[in-house]
Amino acid sequence: MNRLVLISGCSGGGKSTLLAELGRRGHAIVEEPGRRIVKQELEGDGAALPWIDMAAFARRAIEMAAADHAAARGQAGWTFFDRGLIDAASALQHLTGEPILEKLSGVHRYNTKVFLTPPWLEIYVTDPERRHGFDEAVAEYDRLATIYPALGYDVVTLPKIAVAERVDFILDRLEAK
């Protein structure tokens, strides 16, 4: 059984908070590639930032997500990813038209259940790593909600409930296989 689990969906929908709770419960977690890249680029005056060079940013996110996937493959137990390779490839394909999604997603498979955080305006905030608005976040969510099923994933939309209950929901769905 593939125990590499993606939590994707709307930017600002609570993914990082969910991952933190999963980590507190003892599960392996992998932080979002995009946030790590933005931090690195801002610290080093880099240009691979989504608001400067989105294509360079997406290519770096693909590389980082592929490395994260490879590193997690041998781990025991569930490993939860805050976004992953498909999100990054989707962004690059949307931006450039390069048919990269199917090529990458076939090689780097995750658990068939992918959990999506829906748009949730009440908790959406911008910060130094998330400068885009809610409308852009919703458009990205809509793309991902179409792409994951097209690639053979079973999309589970997370309910808008408290963090601990959301984590219970995820774990219950995974154990119900």
TrEMBL record:
Domain NadR/Ttd14 AAA: 5-166
Transmembrane segments: none
Entries under Gene3D superfamilies matching the protein: P-loop containing nucleotide triphosphate hydrolases
Highest taxon above the source species: Bacteria
Pfam families for this protein: AAA_28 (PF13521)
Annotated protein name in UniProt: Putative ATPase
Taxonomic source organism: Rhizobium lentis
Origin organism lineage: Bacteria, Pseudomonadati, Pseudomonadota, Alphaproteobacteria, Hyphomicrobiales
